[in-house]
């Protein structure tokens, strides 16, 4: 792409998005009205009196909060081939994911919702171009480490992973520079696929690389092993890393070591249910909430949600610095839908969020309710102060130790270990106490003792994900649990290594 055209296009996108950035609450009000109007004649709309809803208060009264299991009876009808159930007509795709009590999830993607999955990722790239003034990131080759684009059919509807579906909608101006080849992208075995991607890309002018950090790291390590030099030497034009799904901070030190220099990064918050937010600035903290993406957002205080209190508020009533369970209402027909994520607002003008964790991913065996953002932030700070780097980790409670008080057990796979593990553990524990007063009270009250670290052999988390059939793609290891199911599996794999 010509640099002048790229820059002008970036300015146009930023200007266009400025309308909803400046009027986010109004954009949300319009979105809700439009969603109700479009879906009032669907089976769900008729069942929940959409025709009579004219305010958010009525919406809350008519449409309860549901997770996938709660809305499954409607989705099952859509999967069976029925029209006009959750959204007018049939979806154009089913995004198939795993992880529910009843097996695979089939998330509908409509003709109306699909463009926003592409638009938002595109906008994030061009916001970076505009802010940095660097158009060269789009002049070289780009790679998107993603799932297979091979799609099956379910009642005549194309079905696959979100990343595989998105692969069919890459804008024409990015396609010519995009790698890997379609044939390589279709390889199902993740390790074989990464090997093939290395072969295809190692001699190319890569300027933009995108994917979930642990899988991109695997790609970098294979290149490093093949060439014996840093990624920055293999790809001197590499300027931008785009990621989502997991926190980049624990990987940053090892990435910079592999690359040999610092590079720009942009975080995305995509979900099968809709594209929620993206990083629009390198100077400001948080991700810009996409308030004009065909999604009406509602928020429930996490502290209330835990107590089974479900007061839902709109964007105009949120405050900074507290955790909310995020609820989606989408132009693909997901209504009052709890995706299981928690967010924290770090800015209200414009509305920017950080993903603070998962509703079901926490450690609270003793009432402390430690969440992902707290453990990740504590670990990041400890790693920086002890000049070490972490590949992956998992935290779970040890309720019945062989001796002494219960504790939090941290299973950590290091890239570089700290010089003194016991002092590192003390630092990490103090960091967590400073972030979570309940945890601190339990320590000081003699209910818990300080955390214990189990150092894992390298590759253990990859072996764990492989054993679960979830290696590669959009899959990511669980960072937190309120039981020891995952921990015991990981420990067993570590012992066999």
**Helix content range:** 25-40%
User: How many domains in all?
Assistant: 2
Q: What is the arithmetic mean of pLDDT?
A: 90
Strand coverage percent: 15-25%
Q: Count the helices. How many?
A: 19
State the major sheet: 11 strands, mixed
Give the strand order, joined by hyphens, for the main sheet: 6-3-7-8-9-10-11-15-14-13-12
End-to-end gap: 48 Å
Could you say which structural class the secondary elements and strand pairing correspond to?
alpha/beta
Dominant shape = globular
Radius of gyration: 23 Å
Give the oligomeric state of the chains in this entry, treating copies of one chain as homo and distinct chains as hetero.
single chain
Walkthrough of the structure:
This protein is an alpha/beta fold and 497 residues long. It has 2 domains: 315 residues; 135 residues, GMP Synthetase, Chain A, domain 3 (2-Layer Sandwich), CATH 3.30.300. The chain contains 19 helices and 20 strands. The protein has an 11-stranded mixed beta sheet. The chain has a 4-stranded mixed beta sheet with strand order 2-1-5-4. Strand 9 and strand 10 form a beta hairpin. It is globular.
Descriptive tags:
single chain; alpha/beta; GMP Synthetase, Chain A, domain 3; 2 domains; eleven-stranded mixed β-sheet; four-stranded mixed β-sheet
List the topology elements:
Layout: H1 3-22, H2 24-39, H3 43-47, H4 56-62, H5 68-79, E1 93-100, E2 103-109, H6 114-132, E3 141-144, E4 152-154, E5 157-160, H7 162-166, H8 172-175, E6 178-179, H9 182-185, H10 190-201, E7 206-210, H11 213-227, H12 231-234, E8 240-244, H13 249-259, E9 264-271, E10 274-278, E11 287-289, E12 295-301, H14 302-306, E13 323-330, E14 337-348, E15 351-358, E16 362-363, E17 370-371, H15 372-385, E18 389-398, E19 407-416, H16 421-435, H17 437-444, E20 452-455, H18 460-467, H19 485-496
Parallel strand pairs: 1-5, 3-6, 3-7, 7-8, 8-9, 19-20
Antiparallel strand pairs: 1-2, 4-5, 9-10, 10-11, 11-15, 12-13, 13-14, 14-15, 16-17, 18-19
Helix pairs in contact: 1-6, 10-11, 11-13, 15-16, 16-17, 18-19
